[in-house]
Design a protein that fits this description.
The structure holds 2 protein chains of 2 kinds. By secondary structure, chain A is mostly helical. Chain A contains 6 helices and no strands. Chain B contains 9 helices and no strands. The longest helix of chain B is centred in the first third of the chain and has 22 residues. Chain B starts with 5 loop residues before the first helix and ends in a 6-residue tail after the last helix. About 5% of the residues of chain B have low confidence. The chains are: A mainly alpha, B mainly alpha.
Amino acid sequence: MNDKHTDKQQLDSNQLENLFAQAREQQTPLAGDEFTASVMRRLSADKRTAILSTPRRAWRWLDAVGLGLGTAACFSFVQPTELLLWVSNALLPETVVISPLSILAATGTLGLLAISAWWATEGQSRI
Amino acid sequence: MKNIAEAQLLDRSIMSGDQLAFAELVKRHQSGLRYSLRQLTRWDEALADDLAQETFIRAYQKLHSFRGDAKFSSWLYRIGYNLFLQHCRKKQLDTEELHDERHSEPAPDVAGAQDTDLQRAIAEALATLSPEARSVMHLSLHRQCTQQEISTIMGIPLGTVKTHINRSKPLLQAQLGAWRE
């Protein structure tokens, strides 16, 4: 046990570390149910976190039902081959013109996408 | 719930927002965090517990961003230390101001007078440092983190950690000189 002196002295490096070690050993556990309960009460009261606690898993089957209904409705109006042709015509242009402007536009778009992706990743990792 | 591994509790909290699993994580990590925050806040129990609560709430909100490349406790401490630093900036609590505010407060109710004296003496000595240096010294001397770990937890460069340690150690040695063996 350390003796507390009144005169001004200086600890050396080892003594300082030993003092912190002593404090660490004396550290009484602060685990209380009341603290946990108050955190959980605040989580439940917080709208942002209360949404997370709802059992979303139970409603996931609705996604599959919606997908099935949407697909059936789509194919009831359009033939599958026609739909494919229509999509490919819309996506693939008949002629491709490579001009400085198009290269500039493509580079700019790619650059913007890369910056957005980097920004999103940084935002996620930041606390 | 008590026997479930931490990784499993984290999975359940992240994947389905299971608050019971998160409550178990709070139970397991609260003691270390609350103790650390008490040491940083000059043993202000109410403030430390408020910050600890806020830490767990922020952690729950940000669980999806926990990537598991660091220990959960380190990630938690990082949030806690950031909140502590934010609190200091918000209240503009420099060490002098803190000293004036708390000087006349009665000793906190902690079992063991000698233990309390030492804990308070360390907290008082740490309070003479800037909030960032205080956190560095706490992590280094109390939590026994490596300089690299401190740098990761606090999100500051390794060189800054070294500077804080080199500058603050002599100050703490002088401050705690009365506790010489």
